[in-house]
TrEMBL record:
NCBIfam families referenced in this protein's UniProt entry, alphabetically: ant_ant_sig
Record Gene3D superfamilies: STAS domain
Organism this protein belongs to: Amycolatopsis dendrobii
Pfam families: STAS
Name this protein carries in UniProt: Anti-sigma factor antagonist
Ranges for domain STAS: 1-109
UniProt record similarity statement: Belongs to the anti-sigma-factor antagonist family.
InterPro entries, per database record: Anti-sigma_ant (IPR003658), STAS_dom (IPR002645), STAS_dom_sf (IPR036513)
PROSITE patterns assigned to the protein according to its UniProt record, in alphabetical order: STAS
GO MF entries: anti-sigma factor antagonist activity
Length: 111
């Protein structure tokens, strides 16, 4: 799992690449938690994420709870069909604002 952080105005974009599973979940959770801002907004770009397991879904749920506690708006961008299917099938997708592109996510988070 690779994780890149960059800014788009006041939006912190975290781009994930690779598999989010039991082997990568703990490190990903720690790194994402450290990089989610305490103000502004956060966008998870999942376009490079090729697979997620239940451990990966748990990471996303913990990030969701973190931003809910801090009041930071969060969106998910560029879900691959496989990841979207898993998130839809489990109902996890309903927790998030989901957009097709990073640009659409930035726009949704800065309205």
């Amino acid at each position: 799992m690779e994780l890149e952080k960059y800014m788009r105005g006041r939006v912190t974009v975290l781009a994930l690449e690779g598999e989010l599973d039991s082997a990568t979940a703990d490190e990903a959770r720690t790194r994402i938690s450290e990089l989610v801002p305490s103000d502004g907004a956060a966008l998870l770009d999942l376009g490079g994420m090729t697979y997620t397991s239940s451990a990966g879904l748990r990471v996303l749920l913990l990030v969701y709870r973190q931003v809910q506690e801090s009041g930071v708006p969060l969106a998910l961008a560029r879900l691959t069909p496989d990841v979207a299917e898993v998130m839809t099938g489990t109902g996890f997708i309903d927790f998030f604002t989901v957009v097709d592109t990073v640009d659409a996510g930035v726009e949704a988070l800065t309205r």
